[in-house]
Amino acid sequence: MQVLACNEHGSFDDIDLEAVKKIACEIMTQEKLPDNAELSLVFCDDDTIKDLNNNFRGKNEPTDVLSFPMTQNKFVNFEPETILLGDIVISLDTALKQANELKHSLTTEITFLLIHGILHLIGFDHINEDERKVMLKRESDIFTKLNSKTQEANINASTVIGRTEFFA
Predict the structure, then answer these.
(1) Which domains are delineated in the chain?
(2) Could you identify which of 111, 114, 120, 138 might form a hypothetical disulfide with 67, taking C-beta atoms 3.0 to 4.6 angstroms apart as the criterion?
(3) pTM for this entry
(4) How far apart are CA 37 and CA 6, in angstroms?
């Protein structure tokens, strides 16, 4: 599995993209995605995500995460060298606000947003209440497993933003 990540936000220089990639790969592994699955991840500011949200969803406001799946089908019936899942864009400004409101770390918020974004890329949605419940349950299950596996494997996911705690 491959995750291409970049940080286009000017004020969050301490994000460890390699640690973020490890977290994303673990989420993809939990979802039993093929080894040749690939996604891209961009961290940005509220202005950038507001423009994207307006252009692609008609909502002229910032949001926390946007997902752009490469295909509407879960997987196409052919074996390409790489299965491109799509792109995830996360606003670090909004993620930090939400982390403060929910009284947990930015690391925790980024992890939740990664889970949410990846689930969107593979076909989950929350348009109606039934879909929302299914997606929330899956997010919770992944987060719980990720927390447990991270601790067992001694992967220091808190290095995502240079903090000493992981899941608050």
Answers:
(1) 2-160 (3.40.390.30)
(2) 120
(3) 0.83
(4) 18
Alpha carbon distances (Å) from 109 to 25, 59, 71, 129 = 17, 22, 26, 23
Q: Answer whether residue 54 shows pLDDT above 50.
A: yes
| Structural contact between residues 15 and 161, judged by C-beta atoms closer than 8 angstroms | yes
Q: With contact defined as beta carbons under 8 Å apart, do 136 and 2 qualify?
A: no
Residue type, 128: N
The average confidence (pLDDT) of the chain is 83
Distance CA(54)–CA(166), nearest Å, equals: 33
pLDDT tens string 123-144: 888 888 899 899 889 998 998 8
Could you tell me which residues come within 8 angstroms of residue 109 by beta carbon, excluding any fewer than 6 positions away?
A: 64, 95, 96, 98, 99, 102
What is the predicted pLDDT for the residue at 6? 93
**How many helices and strands, by DSSP H and E, does the chain display?**
5, 4
Residue 158 has pLDDT above 80, yes or no: no
Residues near 76 by Cβ (< 8 Å), separated by ≥ 6? none
User: What are the start-end ranges of the H helices in 58-155?
Assistant: 92-102, 106-121, 129-153
160 pLDDT more than 70? no
Cβ atoms 152, 166 nearer than 8 A:
no
Structure token digits, residue 4: 């291409």
